[in-house]
Write a structure and sequence with these properties.
Layout (H helix, E strand, L loop, with lengths): L3 H13 L2 H12 L6 H18 L4 H14 L4 H17 L6 H16 L6 H22 L8 H13 L3 H6 L3 H9 L3 H7 L13
């Protein structure tokens, strides 16, 4: 595939408002391996569009889009800020349903997100992530660590998608044992592995 092909496909899908086609084109470009700076920019832009379209109505896919956009430029503060702000909004929007397990998983999401931030940007990443950590502590106390019934079925795949995008080398060298154990202990992990992004997405109406 020539470099201009994924760029053209991505921009055509955006212009047409065809977000199923955009998701497919982005996934193909993302998984293609070697990328030029121009292709990385197109992938980053496309995933930002997709993240905005999904929003809080589809937090699993929205977080994945935010993260893949950021991976194109892992030291970019604005992209990291967008991803963390999305998680903060997720916590605030679902405070009545989130329980102890959810807050634990969201905290681990922040750890996984920071894994791919360059060492030179570690202090910046810690500062950007601090408000999310504070939000988690605040709502944990406010909710008195109440158990939840269904919401963790959203937070689990959100965490798994972040984990699944790590390379084997990153998992071996960087991921903490406690995060790996959390992934392995998830009740629905086998289902998620088999079905991640395999079902056809429903058409999404963009925000006005």
């Amino acid at each position: 595939m020539r470099y201009k092909d994924p760029i053209e496909t991505i921009h055509q899908a955006i212009r047409a408002g065809d977000y199923d086609a955009l998701s497919d084109a982005l996934d193909l470009a993302y998984n293609s391996g070697s990328r030029s700076a121009v292709v990385k920019s197109a992938i980053c832009f496309g995933y930002r569009v997709l993240a905005d379209v999904y929003g809080q109505s589809n937090p699993v896919e929205a977080l994945l889009a935010h993260d893949r956009s950021r991976q194109m430029f892992p030291g970019d503060k604005e992209l990291l800020q967008d991803e963390i702000d999305f998680l903060i909004e997720f916590v605030e929007s679902n405070e009545d349903e989130l329980g102890e397990k959810d807050y634990d998983l969201i905290g681990k999401m922040a750890e996984l997100i920071k894994i791919r931030v360059p060492k030179s940007s570690k202090e910046m990443a810690d500062r950007v992530c601090d408000p999310l950590v504070s939000e988690i502590k605040h709502f944990e106390t406010k909710a008195e660590l109440k158990e939840t019934i269904n919401i963790y079925r959203v937070s689990e795949p959100m965490l798994y998608n972040l984990f699944a995008d790590l390379t084997e080398q990153e998992r071996k060298e960087k991921i903490a044992d406690i995060i790996l154990k959390t992934i392995e202990d998830m009740d629905r992990i086998d289902y998620l592995k088999k079905n991640k992004k395999s079902s056809k997405k429903k058409s999404v109406t963009p925000k006005p």
